[in-house]
């Protein structure tokens, strides 16, 4: 387990099942519709699963032998499209089991809390923006290290940024500086020039930028272009330069 930040809105967390008191992994796909905001609340669920398991293979072998080769893990249902790069392609249902849910099948399972220095997930382009910014750097062993002690800002990019090819076209000269930023929200068709600085709470709204064939952006002709060297927002108290 690891402590969540404002950007860890999807990671599964551990919970205590009321019916039998067992510890279970609760994934975002298991959330009842309408309660997603509770799941994403990092103050309500301050830790989340780091997708790292240590298991005793002899114990697992014994369980499989007792259960005819099945651990009985819960099924997770995800709604996706056949072509993930084309949001208009045929919708499908992906059925899977998360290995982390095995914690409920094994008596005596325990969770270990690890520091953020040992876990830096990049599952979305929001998180990719964070690690590409000046908030982080590589050390000599290629570990990702924070360059400041201040809390990381919330990054919330619109669907036009969700696929990496589109994302790269919208940040052709790199992501903005986030060292003085508390939140960066971007919606619509926006392209950023190089050397942009975000300060405080920043909201950038461009045209709708509906996707074209194959999920490609509608083009940059009508996009809002944030010019090179633009300073967005206002400085915040207590930030380090």
What does the model show?
This protein is an alpha/beta fold and 241 residues long. It folds into two domains: 2-104, no CATH class; 121-233, UDP N-Acetylglucosamine Acyltransferase, domain 1 (3 Solenoid), CATH 2.160.10.10. It is 12% helix and 26% strand. The chain has four helices and 14 strands. It has helices at residues 36-39, 57-66, 125-132, 164-170, and strands at 2-3, 13-16, 23-26, 47-48, 76-81, 91-96, 136-138, 144-146, 154-157, 177-187, 190-192, 197-205, 224-226, 231-233. The strands form six sheets. The protein has a four-stranded parallel sheet with strand order 9-10-12-14, covered by helices on one side. The chain has a two-stranded antiparallel sheet with strand order 1-4. Helix 4 (164-170) links the parallel strand 9 and strand 10 (177-187). The chain is globular. Mean pLDDT is 86; it is low at 210-219 and 237-241.
């Amino acid at each position: 387990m690891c402590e969540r930040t404002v950007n860890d809105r999807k990671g599964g967390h551990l919970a205590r099942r009321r019916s039998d008191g067992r510890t279970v992994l609760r994934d975002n796909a298991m959330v009842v519709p309408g309660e997603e905001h509770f799941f994403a609340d990092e103050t309500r669920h301050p830790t989340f699963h780091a997708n790292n398991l240590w298991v005793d293979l002899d114990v697992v072998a014994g369980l499989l032998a007792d259960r005819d080769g099945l651990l009985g893990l819960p099924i997770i249902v995800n709604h996706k499209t056949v072509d993930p790069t084309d949001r208009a392609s045929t919708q499908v249902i992906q059925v899977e089991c998360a290995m982390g849910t095995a914690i409920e099948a094994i008596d005596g399972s325990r969770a270990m809390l690890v520091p953020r220095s040992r876990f830096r997930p990049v599952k979305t382009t929001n998180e990719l923006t964070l690690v590409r910014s000046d908030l982080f750097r590589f050390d000599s062993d290629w570990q990702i290290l924070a360059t400041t002690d201040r809390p990381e800002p919330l990054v919330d990019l619109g669907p036009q940024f969700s696929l990496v090819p589109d994302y790269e076209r919208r940040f052709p000269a790199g992501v903005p500086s986030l060292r003085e930023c508390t939140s960066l929200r971007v919606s619509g068709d926006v392209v950023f020039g190089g050397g942009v600085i975000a300060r405080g709470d920043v909201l950038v709204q461009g045209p709708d930028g509906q996707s074209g064939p194959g999920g490609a952006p509608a083009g940059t002709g009508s996009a809002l272009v944030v010019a090179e060297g633009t300073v967005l927002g206002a400085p915040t108290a207590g930030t380090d330069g």
